[in-house]
Amino acid sequence: MLPGCADDTCPKANPTPRLAVKVPIVWVLGGPGSGKGTQCGKIVAKYDFVHLSTGDLLRNEVASETQRGRELQHIMDRGELVPNDVVIELLKEAIVKNLQKAKGFLIDGYPREKHQGILFEQKIGPVTCILFFETSDETLAYRLRNRARKSFRSDDNVNIIQRRIKTFNAEKDLILDQYSAKVKKIDAEKSVDEVFADVQRHLDVLVD
Ligand code: ADP
Ligand code: MG
């Protein structure tokens, strides 16, 4: 029996097993509108990685119109973060589904706060590197306003944009400090192709 455990149902005696992920796991971080989705699309095409956007996983859950989906909808419409255990479960399921074929995993928009990072590494496995797209708040707001004209995302409306940028800014330093050795900062004010050139410099060393 481990010290501090009353019996063998104690979580310390039975830690949740991590997944055996043998390919790179890359977290893709940056403010809303910094170009994560755009760059992930290009990475998938070149490197055959599987792109998992927590936003998309959550929106799929909402579209499934279950009770849990409806609860998530209300939270997302307020520009807030959904509970960690829901997000990690959705991510874990998606990784398991792609474990055989993926050459790597891009985790887009996660972790959004410090505890999510800890949970990910406990339940799934260690992150290999972190791509962090840096942009000014003005650029984020400008790109999101443009995207709002073309998309049907309910959280891209003007009122919620500032809230989402603020939520991101409030948490980002905690994440960056915690993983400073693995963070690759990329100037995402540049054009899509210039940003992708920087992305490739960081990913080429991870694949053979
Ligand atoms: P995120 O996934 O980080 O929220 P997106 O990839 O959806 O961001 O990009 C947000 C908007 O900005 C989209 O309309 C996209 O076409 C545009 N965009 C993305 N990257 C760039 C860039 N480097 N320069 C100019 N516009 C960009
Ligand atoms: Mg996105």
Q: What is this entry, summarized?
A:
The protein is of the alpha/beta class and 208 residues long. It has eight helices and five strands; from the N terminus they run E-H-E-H-H-H-E-H-E-H-H-E-H.
Structural write-up:
α1 (36-47) packs across α8 (192-204). The protein is globular. The protein has helices spanning 36-47, 54-63, 67-77, 84-98, 114-123, 137-150, 158-178, 192-204, and strands spanning 25-30, 50-53, 105-108, 129-134, 183-187. Helices cover 51% and strands 12% of the residues. It has a 5-stranded parallel β-sheet, sandwiched between helices. The protein is of the alpha/beta class. The relative contact order is 0.19. The chain has a domain at 23-52 and 100-207: Rossmann fold. It has 8 helices and 5 strands; from the N terminus they run βαβαααβαβααβα. It binds adenosine-5'-diphosphate (ADP) and magnesium ion (MG). Residues 36-37, 53, 55 line the site of magnesium ion (MG).
SSE inventory with pairings:
Blueprint: E1 25-30, H1 36-47, E2 50-53, H2 54-63, H3 67-77, H4 84-98, E3 105-108, H5 114-123, E4 129-134, H6 137-150, H7 158-178, E5 183-187, H8 192-204
Helix pairs in contact: 1-8, 2-3, 6-7
The structure holds adenosine-5'-diphosphate (ADP) and magnesium ion.
Rounded Rg: 18 Å
What is the CA-CA span between the terminal residues?
A: 44 Å
Would you tell me the overall average pLDDT?
89
> What gross morphology would you assign?
globular
What attributes does this structure have?
binds adenosine-5'-diphosphate; 208 residues; 5-stranded parallel β-sheet; alpha/beta; 12% strand; binds magnesium ion; Rossmann fold; 5 strands
